[in-house]
């Protein structure tokens, strides 16, 4: 079972074996996460060559035809990406990387890949990633579109998002006890007066009222996410899903 994570790869070494279209996409993706990217192949796309020329990545032109070359290429990697069009070479890189204990993203064999690169999107800074783990990429791609459009059209979520960000900043500054903080978030969301202000996009007023309520005291129990979230959904399901 693979689990979803968002990872900052600053300063980590990612070695991509294969300099074609897929290798290029992986280079761009891992660069976004701050990784030091090296692409090893016997041929590269124009874009990869440009990226190397401008110092964003390193490219190493090599015919990887024996184990020693592969070991040399990947020994310093934290993550190895397999993306050549030679099944024999992909299998070789996989077994060596596996023995060396590397994390492997195998773009050519979803089943054995440790890491999957999902379809990804974001609306208003809420990020999401969708994958079928290689089983039905077409369906995952369509699912991403549905999620993205549904969230984009949802003005209620937009307001909740605006409110939550500002409110959380304030709570983290003002309330020292994390246990109380956890209760606080759902305590105000379940308050009908605060929520009606959020619903009508009066974010400043909602914040003012929420702060007042919190300063008067937050219950120590009863607003844990596993209780509060279903209650919230039950109440606002139609408004939330109406735009989907
Ligand atoms: C999101 C995206 C990210 C990215 O690759 O950057 C991505 N695939 C994209 C495109 C794409 N994929 C394929 C084509 C060719 C034609 C077509 O089918 O359209 C194209 C189009 C193109 O290349 O242009 C076919 C294909 N895909 C995989 C295999 C190998 C296998 O099946 O084992 C084969 C060969 C199948 C065969 O041999 O028949 C496997 C994977 N593809 C994944 C992700 C992961 C799980 C996704 C999931 O299932 O949810 C996984 C497991 C790889 C991983 O996790 O590393 C990217 C969106 C690009 C964008 O939109 O910008
Ligand atoms: N995961 C995905 O989303 C996805 C999408 C499309 C294709 N694929 C698969 O990924 C693989 C790569 O696809 P592509 O379109 O980038 O292919 P490509 O033909 O554009 O690139 C292949 C790369 O492998 C290199 N290579 C091959 N043999 C080599 C060797 N002996 N030594 C060094 N380098 C070598 C080539 O130089 C080239 O850079 C294919 O197996 C394809 O089926 C995966």
TrEMBL record:
Q: Which reaction does it catalyse?
A: precorrin-2 + NAD(+) = sirohydrochlorin + NADH + 2 H(+)
Q: What are its GO biological-process terms?
A: siroheme biosynthetic process
Q: Which Pfam families match?
A: NAD_binding_7
Q: Could you tell me the keywords of this UniProt record?
A: NAD, Oxidoreductase, Porphyrin biosynthesis
Q: Name one GO molecular function term.
A: ferrochelatase activity
What Enzyme Commission number(s) does the record list for this chain? 1.3.1.76
Pathway membership, UniProt: Porphyrin-containing compound metabolism; siroheme biosynthesis; sirohydrochlorin from precorrin-2: step 1/1
**Protein's name in the database:** precorrin-2 dehydrogenase
Organism listed in the record: Ignicoccus islandicus DSM 13165
């Amino acid at each position: 079972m693979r689990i979803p994570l968002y990872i900052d790869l600053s300063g980590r070494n990612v070695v991509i074996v294969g300099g074609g279209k897929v290798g290029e996409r992986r280079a761009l993706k891992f660069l976004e996460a701050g990784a030091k990217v090296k692409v090893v192949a016997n041929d590269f796309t124009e874009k990869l060559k440009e990226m190397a020329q401008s110092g964003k990545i390193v490219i190493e032109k090599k015919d990887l035809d024996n184990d020693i070359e592969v070991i040399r290429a990947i020994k310093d990697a934290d993550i190895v990406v397999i993306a050549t069009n030679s099944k024999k070479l992909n299998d070789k890189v996989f077994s060596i990387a596996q023995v060396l204990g590397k994390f492997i993203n195998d773009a050519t064999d979803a089943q054995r890949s440790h890491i999957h690169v999902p379809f990804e999107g974001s609306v208003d800074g809420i990020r999401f990633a969708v994958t079928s783990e290689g089983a039905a990429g077409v369906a995952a791609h369509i699912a991403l579109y549905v999620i993205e459009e549904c969230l984009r059209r949802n003005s209620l979520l937009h307001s909740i998002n605006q409110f939550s960000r500002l409110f959380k900043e304030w709570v983290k500054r003002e309330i020292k006890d994390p246990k109380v903080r956890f209760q606080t978030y759902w305590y105000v969301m379940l308050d009908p007066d605060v929520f009606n202000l959020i619903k009508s996009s009066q974010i400043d007023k909602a914040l003012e009222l929420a702060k007042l309520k919190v300063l008067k005291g937050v219950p120590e129990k009863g607003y844990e996410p596993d209780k509060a979230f279903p209650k919230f959904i039950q109440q606002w399901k139609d408004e939330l899903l109406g735009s989907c």
